[in-house]
Amino acid sequence: MLDADCIPAASAPVETLKHTENILFLGTDLREGWDNWRTDTIMLGIIDWENNQMAVVSFPRDLYVYHPHFGKRRINVFEYLGDAHKYPGGGFQTIKEIFEYNFGVSIDHIVMVHRGAFVEFVDAVGGIDVTLDCDLWEISPQPDGNGYKVLYLPAGTHHLDGETALAFATYRYRTSDWGRARRQQEVLAALKQQAAQLGLVAKAPQIWGIIQRNVRTDLSFTDLLRYAKFGLALDMSNIHSHVFSGRELEQVQLPSGAYVLLPKEDGVIQDVLENIFLYVPISVQGTHPKGCPPPPDWAPDYLASLTPTPQP
Asked: Of 293, 312, 37, 7, which is closest to residue 174 (Cα–Cα)?
């Protein structure tokens, strides 16, 4: 992959995923007034209808992959390139070809969600509950580039509205892309639980309205109902999950000086996908079995700033 003149071989199909329905979920950073975007959130949903189970797999945005037309680039740029260059089938077809060529996965459907749709959806279901086994300290740059926004959630259960859930799912400057991906899977698990409590199928027309306004997808309303009924009926133990991270990937420097992620071993991504239904349930994805990470050095000052100054 580091040799500019070398074309990598196409991956053999993943046998397990030949018999599943595979849906790609993309989260885009597109803002109003922008003419380009990246898909920094990339999650593969795998539905095994026959065995009544599913899986969610998160791919990092810096994964370095190959497309026969666009060459070698980070995976998060290909959906935009397909649209911008009017590739046949557009961005959706481009990213489908990325997954088939590099990972041996045939993608049946794609859902691309904008930030506003995520906030609206979480608020439409009344917010979500997340339970943390450790304190969460995260930061994200201020829009004007002057300093950072802080997200602090102590260990315990928290009810998040749409805006707070978006911060929970997107801030990454302390816990990295991999920590963010694990929290995104926590959000999915929380949304499933909240939707089940509300009887979300009855709200499908309202949800479809949100999708039509803010989501690009090749799913129909009938597809939405079919997936919703299946997912809501599943026990959490039958929803498996994985986040590709430093266990399988390593950071390498390109001749240009940019850093990207590549598999440590040939076929390691395909091996995970082949055995995905042996991986942990999604409900334990964000836990810390090896102990809680330490707080940042600035935590005491931040906590002190939250305490009102006594008035004389």
From this structure: 293
